[in-house]
Amino acid sequence: MLRRTFGLSQKLMIFDLDAGFLDDELLASQMRLLVGLVSTDRARSAGDRLPLAWRGHEDALTLRLNQLMDEMTLRSLATPGTVATTNEAVIWPPTDRDMLQAQLTEIRSRAEKGFKGRIRLPKNEHELWASYKYSLLARNRQAYESFGRRVAARTVDLMDLWLALENASRIAPPEGGIRNALQHMWGYVSGFSSLSPQTDDLDGLAQEVQLLACQHQVSYLINSTALGELRAWL
Q1: Is 53 among the domain residues?
Q2: Which of 2, 61, 88, 128 maximizes the CB count within 10 A of its CB?
Q3: What distance in Å separates the CA atoms of residue 177 and residue 57, rounded to the nearest whole number?
């Protein structure tokens, strides 16, 4: 059972760190929490039960729930099914360094007890960048290249990098960006795939990459945030 509150009641504790870092038990508990807060009439049903930081961000909460369930599906864990979202832009509550650090402390504490997520906890900036690079590529190629250069030159602090990448991955990726990232990822499983990466079925391509990455334990993709989070945007 989680014991840190991040300044909130434990029952209202919402992690916004990429779902790939959460262990199976934490994923399931977060999913149950958000299912209780999200409904077709979110404003009336959740009301003041929502943490202050998430009030006015119900669409982001719904998307977060879908991201959790997509990650659970990737791990073959049972879910009740995704929830419909609006076509409006999703505006997330801000994440600051202290909140991110508190969440990471909890994740590390759980990992020390044997509760580990799909994505390994990075030991340095290079491992962190490897985990997020395709999520960033899906959103902005120029930013992807700029961050890559900074990591290679060792000119960015680990926590500053993590915060920047987490915030960037909340931006809705354009269809062309998702296609580009998935095609790069498909390259790691191309030897096992009979699907053309030029297919118009992006969800099918994402599913193919997920399936083959897990079947063949392709470590680089298993440790990628994009392997789980991109499908929630399709």
Answers
A1: yes
A2: 61
A3: 25
Asked if the model's pLDDT at residue 121 lies above 50, the reply is: yes
> Are 229 and 168 within 8 A, CB to CB?
no
Whether residue 1 is contained in a domain is answered as: no
Record the tokens describing residue 76, joined without a space. 């073959």
Domain extent at residue 54: 13-112
Eight-class DSSP state of 195:
S
Query: Is 99 a domain residue?
Result: yes
Tokens of 228: 């789980």
CA 226/CA 71 separation, integer angstroms:
10
| CA 120 to each of CA 16, 78, 108, 174: distance values in angstroms, whole numbers, following the listed order | 17, 22, 10, 27
The per-residue pLDDT for range 25-80, each reduced to its tens digit, is 999 999 999 998 886 445 444 556 788 888 889 999 999 999 999 999 999 999 98
